[in-house]
Amino acid sequence: MTENGDARASWWQWGCLALLIGGILLVVLTGMWLFSRPTVQPSGPRPTAIVWTASPTPSPTPTPTPTPTPQPTLPLSPTEIGVGVRVQVSGTGTAGLNMRASASTAAERLSVAAEGEVFIVAAGPTQADDLTWWFLRDEANPHREGWAAANYLIVAP
Q1: Is 48 strand, coil or helix?
Q2: What CATH number does the domain containing 130 carry?
Q3: Are residues 91 and 150 in the same domain?
Q4: Which residues lie below 8 Å from residue 131, measured CB to CB, with a gap of 6+?
Q5: Where in the sequence is the domain holding 26, given as residue range(s)?
Q6: How many whole angstroms separate alpha carbon 147 and alpha carbon 133?
Q7: Which is more confidently placed, 17 or 3?
Q8: What is the per-residue pLDDT for 22?
Q9: Which of 21, 102, 127, 139 could form a disulfide with 107 if both were Cys (CB 3.0 to 4.6 A apart)?
Q10: How far apart are CA 117 and CA 112, in angstroms?
Q11: Per-residue three-class SS string for 123-144
Q12: How far apart are CA 98 and CA 147, in angstroms?
């Protein structure tokens, strides 16, 4: 506003507006000129890019080591558990038998064997926590294995 309360713009406001519009117009025209110029090709041969790629070194494929079938420990009676003997989970009811990472009731539980499941004894016996432990392996799934308490195992019929 001017001193007398007039709402008209003063001469310096109009000047600033003209400079602003002129600057914008200058930027637009300069951009149009730069982008409309033909590109100049250098004379002579053109450089060629060389792309370096590394050939992967083949790594040897690991050969799976066959898991040996445990040989029974001798002498065994028909009711005695030993390495190589097939055992059945018995006496757990619906709770099942914990198969653990090591022979201990505090060890990580890897799996739960259901009542009646059959396993092969792969190692043992080991004494811990007032229990006898056997290392069992599922014949149908060799990756399913763990330590189990002998109190809930019988020789499979």
Answers
A1: coil
A2: 2.30.30.40
A3: yes
A4: 103, 105, 149, 150, 151
A5: 10-37
A6: 6
A7: 17
A8: 96
A9: 102
A10: 10
A11: EEEEEECCEEEEEEECCCCCCC
A12: 8
Integer Cα distance of 46 and 52 in angstroms: 19
Residue 133 lies inside a defined structural domain of this protein: yes
Token output for 25: 């117009």
Q: How do residues 126-154 score in pLDDT, each as one tens digit? A: 898 999 999 999 888 888 899 999 888 98
Closest CA to 153 of 88, 58, 67: 88
| 20 located within any domain | yes
pTM exceeds 0.85, yes or no: no
83-123 pLDDT per residue, tens: 888 998 988 888 889 999 998 989 999 989 999 899 999 88
Specify the DSSP element, H or E, that contains 155.
strand 153-155
Q: Shortest CA distance to 86 belongs to which of 140, 127, 126, 128?
A: 140
φ and ψ at residue 139, rounded to 5 degrees? -65, -35
Query: Among the listed ranges 20-24, 46-50, 65-69, 121-125, which one has the minimum average pLDDT value?
Result: 65-69
Asked if residue 125 belongs to a domain, the reply is yes
Residue type present at position 28: V
